[in-house]
Amino acid sequence: MKVRILSLTILSILLFSLFGGFIGYTAGNVNSYIKSVEDFINYYLNLADENGIEIPQDLREKVNKSFEYLELARNESNRYKAYQYILEAMLEFSPVYFYIQSELNMEYTIDKSLYLETIAKKRDILIQMNRTLRNFEDTVVICLDINVEINKSDRIQNYLYRDICLELDREALRKGINEALNKLKYLEENLGRMSPEEIEEVLSEINSIIANVTIQINTAVGRNWRSVGMVQGVSIAFRKILVSIVNSINSSIRHIEAGNTEGALEMLRGLENRLEVYLNLLNKSIRYGERFNISTSILDNVREMVRILTDVRELIASAISALEAGDEASALTYLEQALSILLGYISNYSSQLPIPRRYISIIINASVELRNRIKMSMRRFMQMDTKNVERMLNNLESQINRLVRQYESGMLPKQVFINMLNNIREVLINLKDELSSMEGVNQELIDRVDQLIRYIDSLLAKYS
After folding, report:
1. With contact defined as beta carbons under 8 Å apart, do 141 and 130 qualify?
2. What is the pTM of this model?
3. What is the dihedral of CA 372, 375, 376, 381, to 10 degrees?
4. How confident is the model at residue 295, as a pLDDT?
5. Taken in order 144, 150, 155, 161, is the CA torsion positive or negative?
6. Which of 136, 177, 208, 347 is the most buried (most CB within 10 A)?
7. Contact at 8 Å (CB) between 39 and 6?
């Protein structure tokens, strides 16, 4: 009958909403799910009244228990627990629902379009479940085999096994999900030849699998839902940051090589603004973690991200200043240094970063290629005219003096100041290597580089 099939569709939509928001950090509007379940229950209670169906006392108690769970969910500030209460309300009401259905004296009316909609909804749920498991694996949220991972480093052990990882039987969950997907495929292919009872029996089996997987994941997440949610949020943000940095630097280099300074400036200013936004998001994540006492190792990992990205942002700002002054060679060295810092960070923390390994490989390969292109372009600018090198050295000296003024006036944190001095020092060392490998370069330029390196060394000794 249409009533029963429609109820299955509602149940599918509800389960999809619950599963899609089981991580409290990114959960949706709990009240809307409470209302969906409440409406669902009231609809069937009204249907029983209209058809004169007397609900036995034991089932009446289950109805009352369902409303009690909904009230608990409505008053619960912990979103994860609220979702658990909503699910409990549905489970309590399930036998009441089936009793009312069994007592309805109505003929079945098969509406194929409604069944197809139900099948599509359930397939969406199962695909989302598979995607969630894969995402958890990619972002080291699921505990890996400790015998394999233990030898990597103590930090890995702390990060994976003591703080946030989830104990989930991935193979069993995937087996169940695939079984449900196969049942849906069978149902879809044989819908016209099956009776309503047969169809609903298969749908009931699929519902059981969905409920089992949902409960297992929710139970695992429930122990550390704030930590897991935070790691997921940081994972998404940091992945976007890496892609944004590499793509923007790549585009700006192309503009510089083509002599389009304005185009390069537009790309770099946009990147600088995005980095500011990303840094604000990461800092908010840190404050969130501190508020809810999320483990120190997770927060330290995010703080290290902030430190590295702050350095990258400063180098992007320096590249913008150099381009505005007409110094393409200096701009290229700053961009190369930004990529170098990023690569160093990824190399040191790649096994701990909460982002998919395939993204790390892409970023590393793209960054290496970009650095090689930058060095080739930088050499071309230097060979065109020694004045380019002189302008670059003047720009670097101005940058050093500006950093000193900012630090002494309290505008720049000490660690950022020290990091930036070291960054410029590495730029100068790389520049010296380039100049030394070129024929016919004035020794005075190399001496000037050495002078600036000694100047930085004296500042580091003074302020470290």
Report:
1. no
2. 0.53
3. 160
4. 66
5. positive
6. 136
7. no
